[in-house]
């Protein structure tokens, strides 16, 4: 493993710590709920869903989080403003976890951000995401809403369709950091952006470079690479899980601080895989650099007796 020369920031978002040197903190797991196609959603425009099933999924994720030592931030997804607010309220009633404001467009995210500020949830919220290519008028609405609501945490999405390379991702980040500052963001998280099937490789290297150059927490939605793979539909369930595990482990070994792992219902298998990778990283860092986990709930102590 390796130690970053740049001082690594550790952010506290609603009681969940993210960032630091490899091995200090567990990878933060971000699972999605209420996304388009989620079977628990009955009417995505009105925000009608199977509350009992949603509660079961949340309880299962919480249980595996406690058992493995992996921390959680819930990725609340919404395609419509009316339903999105209902989803956020439900999650905040059912859990004490931080959550992502993951609306599909600016017009969906802005009302949600305003609502979060009005009901006093800003300290648990992470705006997802500030990204390039937004129209100037929409950008102004977005920046104003975030600032007025008092939301201090945001994910910066390094999406660069003109240059989908490591260099291209890093160039976009410079622009996004300026926008985040304008919006009053103090807790910056970087998503190094999966665009194509082989992207876990360059995305992992970008995570390393973001941490080395800026000291910011970084990660990605590596599962997207496998889910976009045409051959994925031909894979047996076990081979699919193994393929996804490789994508996740690749980013963790390069220093990832968080993973967007897809549907929340995948938590049982995903947490276990990533906890093992975290434990390996932490043990290596302890031996080579004397860097130990900052908390006794780290996967290293949950899985092994060290």
Total count of strands: 12
CATH class category label? Alpha Beta
End-to-end Cα distance: 18 Å
Helix content range? 40-55%
Number of domains: 1
Please name the fourth-level CATH homologous superfamily: Dihydropteroate synthase-like
SSE pattern:
EEEEEHEHEHEHEHEHEHHEHH
Descriptive overview:
By secondary structure, the chain is α/β, with parallel strands linked by helices. It has one domain (10-301): Alpha-Beta Barrel (TIM Barrel), CATH 3.20.20.20. It has ten helices and twelve strands. Strand 10, helix 6 (200-214) and strand 11 form a beta-alpha-beta unit. Helix 1 runs parallel beside helix 9, helix 5 crosses helix 6 (200-214) and helix 8 (237-253) runs parallel beside helix 9 (267-289). The longest helix has 23 residues, at 267-289. It starts with 9 loop residues before the first strand and ends with a helix. The relative contact order is 0.17.
Short summary of the structure?
46% of the residues lie in helices and 18% in strands. It is α/β, with parallel strands linked by helices and 306 residues long.
Index terms:
306 residues, alpha/beta, TIM Barrel, two-stranded antiparallel sheet, 10 helices, 18% strand, globular
Topology overview:
Elements: E1 10-13, E2 16-19, E3 28-33, E4 41-43, E5 48-49, H1 51-68, E6 74-78, H2 81-94, E7 99-103, H3 106-118, E8 125-130, H4 136-149, E9 153-157, H5 166-182, E10 187-191, H6 200-214, E11 218-220, H7 223-227, H8 237-253, E12 258-263, H9 267-289, H10 299-303
Parallel strand pairs: 3-6, 3-12, 6-7, 7-8, 8-9, 9-10, 10-11, 11-12
Antiparallel strand pairs: 1-2, 4-5
């Amino acid at each position: 493993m390796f130690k970053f020369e740049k001082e690594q920031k550790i952010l506290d978002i609603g009681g969940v710590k993210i960032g630091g040197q490899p091995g200090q903190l567990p990878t933060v797991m971000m699972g999605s709920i209420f996304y388009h196609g989620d079977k628990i959603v009955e009417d995505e425009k009105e925000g009608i869903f199977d509350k009992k099933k949603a509660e079961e999924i949340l309880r299962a994720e919480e249980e595996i989080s406690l058992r493995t030592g992996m921390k959680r931030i819930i990725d609340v997804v919404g395609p419509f403003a009316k339903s999105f607010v209902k989803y956020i309220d439900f999650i905040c009633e059912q859990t004490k976890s931080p959550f992502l404001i993951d609306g599909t467009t600016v017009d969906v995210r802005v009302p949600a951000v305003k609502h979060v500020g009005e009901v006093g949830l800003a300290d648990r919220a992470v705006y997802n995401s500030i990204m390039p290519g937004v129209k100037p008028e929409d950008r102004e609405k977005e920046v104003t809403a975030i600032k007025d609501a008092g939301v201090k945490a945001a994910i910066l999405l390094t999406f660069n369709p003109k240059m989908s390379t490591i260099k291209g991702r890093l160039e976009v980040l410079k622009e996004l950091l300026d926008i985040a500052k304008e919006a009053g963001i103090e807790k910056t998280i970087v998503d190094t952006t999966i665009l194509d099937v082989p992207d876990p490789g360059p995305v992992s290297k970008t995570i390393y470079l973001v941490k080395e150059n800026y000291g910011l927490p970084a990660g990605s939605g590596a599962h997207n690479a496998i889910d976009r793979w045409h051959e994925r539909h031909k894979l047996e369930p076990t081979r699919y899980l193994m393929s996804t595990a490789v994508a996740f482990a690749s980013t963790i070994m390069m220093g990832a601080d968080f993973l967007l792992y897809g549907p929340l219902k995948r938590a049982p298998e995903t947490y276990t895989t990533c906890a093992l990778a975290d434990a390996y990283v932490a043990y290596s860092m302890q031996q080579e650099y004397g860097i130990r986990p900052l908390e006794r709930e780290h996967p290293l102590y949950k899985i092994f007796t060290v």
